Amino acid sequence: MSVCKQFRSSRAIRKTKEEAALTRESVLQAALRVFSRQGYAASTLEDIAREAGVTRGAIYWHFQGKAELYQTLLAQGSQKPLQLLDEVSSAALSPTEMLRRLFIRLLEDIEEDETFQAITELTLFKSEPGIVDAQGEGLAQKYQGTQAFAQQLAQILHRGIDAGELRADLDIQVTSLAFTALLNGVLLVWLQSAKTFSLKLFAPSLADTYLQGILASS
């Protein structure tokens, strides 16, 4: 094969891979919209294929079925908080500043990133009968992500205590749980209120309220 033909062949293969990746992402986004609109049980592959503008065969090329689509979305949703935590942890911030920045960034991203918002809403607040069986491997990955997040958050809390920024008598597990509970509680209120207030606007004050309960006395 000539060099020219090899180049054209490799370019065609690369283009095919890129197109396949775009189709896969398009199907995932379509599945997210359909699941969010209709619920998991009422959604069919035909609905998702129609939403994505592809055939059922195109979906089966990338996914085994509806359950794997849901599992993939579930796994994706568990990665974003870890990515934000990694970003905050790598910044030149004190432990207290890390906690504040992380809380604010999570609420900001949920409001700004429609995909992250939809996955979070779907997996946290739109549970329905029979959906646990469909979660499968995605649920396991989400649990692993949640555990990893809690462990890294605990490390920040320990560093805050060691630095004298946080109260020495803190129960790390309870303090970590309170962080997540406040975050999810605010998100639930925001969704139930039809998003009538800005998470970004309230995030700094909410973060400060959380910190006031755990800061060491000056």
TrEMBL record:
<dbReference type="InterPro" id="IPR050109">
    <property type="entry name" value="HTH-type_TetR-like_transc_reg"/>
</dbReference>
<dbReference type="InterPro" id="IPR009057">
    <property type="entry name" value="Homeodomain-like_sf"/>
</dbReference>
<keyword id="KW-0804">Transcription</keyword>
<dbReference type="Pfam" id="PF08361">
    <property type="entry name" value="TetR_C_2"/>
</dbReference>
<dbReference type="InterPro" id="IPR036271">
    <property type="entry name" value="Tet_transcr_reg_TetR-rel_C_sf"/>
</dbReference>
<keyword id="KW-0238">DNA-binding</keyword>
<feature type="DNA-binding region" description="H-T-H motif">
    <location>
        <begin position="44"/>
        <end position="63"/>
    </location>
</feature>
<keyword id="KW-0678">Repressor</keyword>
<feature type="domain" description="HTH tetR-type">
    <location>
        <begin position="21"/>
        <end position="81"/>
    </location>
</feature>
<keyword id="KW-0805">Transcription regulation</keyword>
<protein>
    <submittedName>
        <fullName>TetR family transcriptional regulator</fullName>
    </submittedName>
</protein>
<dbReference type="Pfam" id="PF00440">
    <property type="entry name" value="TetR_N"/>
</dbReference>
<dbReference type="InterPro" id="IPR023772">
    <property type="entry name" value="DNA-bd_HTH_TetR-type_CS"/>
</dbReference>
<dbReference type="GO" id="GO:0000976">
    <property type="term" value="F:transcription cis-regulatory region binding"/>
</dbReference>
<dbReference type="InterPro" id="IPR001647">
    <property type="entry name" value="HTH_TetR"/>
</dbReference>
<dbReference type="InterPro" id="IPR013572">
    <property type="entry name" value="Tscrpt_reg_MAATS_C"/>
</dbReference>
<dbReference type="GO" id="GO:0003700">
    <property type="term" value="F:DNA-binding transcription factor activity"/>
</dbReference>
